[in-house]
Structures are given as structure tokens and as C-alpha cells.
Amino acid sequence: MSVTPMSPSPDTLQKFIFDNAAVRGEFIDISATWREVLSRHHYPAPVKRVLGDMVAAAALLSANLKFNGSIVMQIHGDGPVRLLVVECDAELRLRATAKLAPDAAIADDAGLTALLNASGKGRFAITLDPADKVPGQQPYQGIVPLDGGDVATVIENYMLRSEQLDTKLWLATSDDAARGLLLQKLPYHGGKAEAVPLSQEDALETWNRAVILGSTLKREELLEAPIDVLMQRLFWEETIRVFDPVHPTFHCSCTREKVGNMLKMLGREEVDGVLAELDFVGVHCDFCGQHYQYDKVDCAQLFTSDAPVEVLIPAGEAKH
């Protein structure tokens, strides 16, 4: 008798809201996407821990945006890690990459501060890049100092400072899994927390109780227990409304056409300079590892085409 192997469970993001209260939340298991990222890169263990937390956090934040476009989360570092980038679009398709200093020496127990904020010059940025820009429209970007010793704390501080939103995050990453929990206090306006009739005192009490419950969550639980089990363990005394789950995936948006447009933006003189030295132009995507190569004929066709040049930023650049 043959046995058909079971397909791995898809990544899942589960939204919920405290009924007649002032708190919304999300659990995420984004382990399959995380393993897809790791299959394309070989990072030291401390870098993987920080980048995996960012992957889970980017999906959690993106799911609350009423926005047709991509959220790009970046940490610019001044230590052995120079850059961490995670991009998540409106369909919860993600990609991620890290750039290390050429001479990077990373201890096995290095935390976020040692990796990215050794001299206190690290920066955290979130960019909202609309998919349907109008002429002249620029992406929105918020940049703050790297305030916190882990990804969860950095994002909590960013959300409070930049968005005036009380947010709590619990994140956990291993080589096989990346998972998280987000709780957010709904904005309070004149006797209402969004659409929920509630006194300010009750709203604060509900929020504090939710945070206390979330803080009982252990790292091993978050990494191993199913989402429905975690929700039952933490909030079994609360009345919670659960929404249909959504399923994040790995996706890299690089294409040969986009790379060609990027070369056209560099200009013929610069491209011809590379061709004179190497006989080809090679471009490597830092996110998925795809390599694109253009010989002299390919490049000549690029610059004789009448097709418009899109405004693109190379995959290897710091901003996307």
C-alpha cells in the first residue's frame, strides 16, 4: 500500500478582535515563507533570528493596512550587519534579504544591538510604496533611530512614535519557523474606540488585560503550538471574533524586464563601460538569487527600444 505524503500546511495569518472591546490582534505562522527565504541565503544564526522576526512582523503590519502597495521594512546598521530588508505587498507576498559587512565577525549570541547598532547610528525605516502611483507621487517613508534591543521593541516604539498606536509584538524565529502575535489598541475618539462604544477607562483596562495575557506566551509555545490552540490558551475567558484566515507566500518581483529598465536608467555610457571591461553586464537579485546577464546585443536592443523606462530601484540597492 502506498501512502501519499501530506502537503505542508500553508502559511497562515489569523486576524481577531475582542468583541465589544478596544483591541485587535493577529497571529501569524509564516514558516514556509521563511524557509523559502533561507533556502536562497546562508546567514549566521543571529542574523537569521533578527531577519525572521522582521519577516513575521512585516506581514503582521501589512495585514492591517488599507493600502494597495508594498510595505518595505528596513534596518540600516552600523555594525557587522549593514542592512536588513523585508518587503510585503498587499497580497501578503514577501521577500527578504540581509547585507553583511565584508569583514563581518558575528558572535553566536549576538543580539540586534551588536549586529546593527554597535555605535548607536542604526536606523529603522518603514516605506509605503503605492502600486498605483499618480504622476509625481513619492512613497511615504518614516525613519527613526534604532530604539530597542529586539525587533519587537523597535517596531513597538516606531508605531507609538510615528503612528500614535499602542502596539505589542511577540516574535519567535528558528531555522524552521517564524511566527508572531500582534496586539493593537484601537484608537479612542470621544467615547468610542473606532466603532466600539466604550469608556476610556474600560478601553484601557481591556488593553492592559490583553497585554498581560499575551505576555504569558512562551517562545517555545509560539514556535510550536497551532494558532487555534494558542488563541484558546491565551484568551479563553475573552469574547473574540475571528476572521477568515489569509495565507502569506514567498514571492520575488524581480524580472528580466525590470532589470533591463534599471540598466536603461543607468545610461548607455555606464553600461558601455561595463561591456568594454567584461563583455557582458551581470545583475544579481539579492532577494531570490536570480542572476540576469546581458551581452552586447542585449544591451544594444535595450537602448534602441522605444519602450518607456519605468522608475525602478535595483534589487541590490538599500531602498526598494
Summary?
This protein is an alpha+beta fold and 320 residues long. It contains ten helices and 16 strands. The strands form four sheets. A six-stranded mixed beta sheet has the order 7-6-3-4-5-14, with helices on one face.
Features:
single chain; alpha+beta; CBS domain Like; 2 domains; five-stranded antiparallel β-sheet; 28% strand; disordered N terminus; disulfide bond; unfolded protein binding
- As laid out across the biggest beta sheet, the strand order is 7-6-3-4-5-14
Structural class: alpha+beta
Low-confidence runs of at least 5 consecutive residues: 1-7, 308-320
Mean model confidence by pLDDT: 85
- Count of helical stretches: 10
- Basic shape: elongated
Q: In the CATH hierarchy, what is the superfamily of the largest domain?
A: Hsp33 domain
DSSP strand (E) fraction?
Answer: 25-35%
Number of E strands = 16
Largest β sheet strand count, sense and barrel closure: 6 strands, mixed
Terminal Cα separation, in Å?
Answer: 51 Å
Report the oligomer.
single chain
Order of helices and strands: EEHHEEEHEEHEEEEEHHHEEHHEEH
What does this structure look like?
This protein has 320 residues and is α+β, with helices and mostly antiparallel strands. It folds into two domains: 239 residues, Hsp33 domain (3-Layer(bab) Sandwich); 49 residues, CBS domain Like. 33% of the residues lie in helices and 28% in strands. It is built from ten helices and 16 strands. A six-stranded mixed β-sheet has the order 7-6-3-4-5-14, with helices on one face. Strands 8-9-2-1-13 form a five-stranded antiparallel β-sheet. Strand 8 and strand 9 form a beta hairpin. It is elongated, with a radius of gyration of 22 Å.
